[in-house]
Amino acid sequence: MRLSRSTFVLACALVAAVSATTADSTTTLRLQMRPSGHFAVENLAGTMTIVPGSSDQVVAVATIHAESEDVLRKISFEQVSGENGTPTMRVIYPIEEYGTFRYPTGGSKFFGMFGGGSNTNTKYAGERVRVSDTTGVLLYADVEIQLPSGADAQFRNVVGKMTAEKVSGKLAFDTGSGEIMMTGLSGSISADTGSGNIIAEDIDGDFSGDTGSGDITLAKFEGEGIDCDTGSGDIRIDASKANRIMTDTGSGDIRVEAETVEFQADTGSGDIDLVSDARIERVDADTGSGDVTLVLGPEASFEAHASIGSGDIVSRYPDAQAIVQKREVVGYRRGDGRTRIDVDTGSGDVVLRPTE
Question: For 12-49, what is each residue's pLDDT tens digit?
């Protein structure tokens, strides 16, 4: 296809403008502190990476990106008194001078110039501020934190991806908009994102995950409890061991393969699938519209009751005894009924079956 001269000139101008938005000046700022208790690290926009440190001090390095040397000089990295007096390592942005900061997230700047792109209005350091991938002054920070073991810390990265690897302690990860990825963590771990996926693997201890819009994927967990909540998105837990698993999604599927004692699942619209072993004692599953499939092993002993608006309850265990009320099958009993199962679905089938 041949481009007209006017179209070619416009395309060249757009490419030049895109190149200008990605060009920046950079510098690095370093901050360290010896924590005596709970502390926090805060950044407005960019990436945040948490890795193991080599001392008893927290060492944080912020790589600053700005559209010019003049803007670059207006940002700092300081220890301040944060919420409730918490010692906080905070990237200080010139919010009073610029109301909007541009953080290029890798999306198409071509379409952003015609009104597209993403914008986040938030509060940072007590001030209202806006982060955009298409407008405002280019200024953001990529922060790496080297963390001593056993830390009690909260990490807040308002816009951007968070990554944590092989660290331990009481750790909370929070981003308004961005993905959270964790691997090899131990202790009490929580992750919260307004919009974005949470991906965690090889976690030991307690885990809590919450996302407004996005999926939660957890694999190889071992510990006391799992608590996952999504506004709209799927929950998937694989190859895990936990005494308690609690899952809730507004709209999305819940799929769990784990050894557990107690399992609870609630979804407004979606399927619930559980694969577990004989030690499970309690199952509560509720879906507004979707099927519920429970795979409990060949030796499972259970008493299952189902409240179904439209659908059937089916047992693939040939020796399970039907529980009948008013000529309708409302459940099944097998063995001594050790595992108590209660299922509620507005529309969908309930299936109990052994592993194949």
Answer: 444 434 434 455 899 999 999 999 999 999 999 999 99
Phi, psi values for residue 19, rounded to 5°: -60, -40
290 within domain boundaries? no
Contact of 151 with 169, CB cutoff 8 Å = yes
245 domain-assigned: no
Cα 9 to chain center, whole Å?
44
- Position 289 in a domain: no
Please give the angle made by the CA atoms of 143, 144 and 145, to the nearest 5 degrees. 120
Q: Which residues make Cβ contacts (< 8 Å) with residue 134, sequence separation at least 6?
A: 102, 109, 112, 113, 116, 117
pTM: 0.90
Q: Look at residue 117 in the predicted model and tell me its pLDDT.
A: 58
* Cα distance between residue 79 and residue 33, in whole Å: 8
Listed residue (244, 297, 289) closest to 268, CA to CA: 289
SS3 (DSSP) at 69 = helix
Domain total for the chain? 1
Position 232 scores a pLDDT of 95
Tell me the mean pLDDT in the region 307-330: 95
Q: What is the dihedral of CA 128, 134, 138, 139, to 10 degrees?
A: 50
Contact 118, 105 (CB under 8 A): yes
Structural contact between residues 91 and 77, judged by C-beta atoms closer than 8 angstroms: yes
Residue 124 structural domain? 21-148
Note whether residue 353 is domain-resident.
no
- Nearest CA-CA partner of 288 in 326, 316, 251: 251
Give per-residue burial for 304-319: e unless 16+ CB within 10 Å, then b: bbbebeebebebebee
pLDDT tens, residue by residue, 177-224: 999 999 999 999 999 999 999 999 999 999 999 999 999 999 999 999
